[in-house]
Predict the 3D structure of the following.
Amino acid sequence: MANKEEIALTLARTPLFTAVQELNARLTSFGGWEMPVQFSGITKEHEAVRRESGMFDISHMGKFSLQGKNLVSQLQGLVPSDLSRLQPSQAQYTVLLNPKGGIIDDIIFYYQGEDNTGLQKGFIIVNAATTAKDKAWLLEHLDTQQIEFQDLSTEKVLVAIQGPKATEILQKFVEEDLTPVKAYGHLDATVLGKPAFLARTGYTGEDGFEVMVEPSVGIELWQKLIEAGVIPAGLGARDTLRLEAAMALYGQDIDDTTTPLEAGLGWLVHLDTKGDFIGRKALEQQKANGVQRKVVRLQMQGRNIARHGYPVLSAGKKVGEITSGTLSPTLGYPIALAYVTTELAKVDNQLEVEIRGKTYPATVVKRPFYKSTSRVSK
């Protein structure tokens, strides 16, 4: 059986790994990478993002650069969202689908625009654990004679600076004015005197930017942000923050057996405004017939935490399963995401969760659990 040292040797490390180690972060294996779970403590890191600013090393995520004369039209066939609506410097959160409408991965496509020769450019950011799978899927379905595809996953640092004060602090190191950038907007910018790609996106429910730079710039920026008072945060706080914002985690809340209509992502499906795409027939059929199950947000009573895999009951019968659950640091009570049969998915419906052989009450609540008052609009 492999020991911890042998396991660590098989894991990839981001260019910020040494800087993370120097802060005595607690480390874990995640998506094939050795990543920090926490630095100063999950609750402290969580509260820093909600109240002021925190930052995450997300360099483990997949980063693809694409360009070609018909880039948008080719990508249209792979996602249910209408990408033709995007203007330069806008982005779309969407999903790659298989023929059954199942979610291969959730992604963000950043459209950079078209030059005077008709060449369209953009970035796609994907989940770390699915980078190889997504790359293979894209290369299989895109015409690589027309589309130039570059995998920058191991070549760039990606840092997320999140929180009500994140933009104000980041601005000190960026030449361009960040004020006009709207949510899901992005720009080519200059960070610490070097080229960078900045996007007003994130996975915390707060305002902030994700910054993609060369490793040497990323290491310097990380240190500068610490000196400016930004709190380093790990995967633990990232998970509690995204769950409060009711954002899905791939492989846990959504996967290739889950459709966007079941997962509360129907707003990504633009059947009326775009043509054919992989999985369209399955989604049309599901929309016509109605989904058999739906994701719900559950508020638990007391301090009993519903964890991944716990059964959800109604009148003593199993009607679904928890996919994510935690004690919300912001709200002070346990929250969870679960899939239940559609007829039980209405807000205020009373359900139960089985925890270690006992059942505890849970209420279906509106999405999200927490909504920031400091986020900018699209």
Remarks:
- The chain has a mean pLDDT of 96.
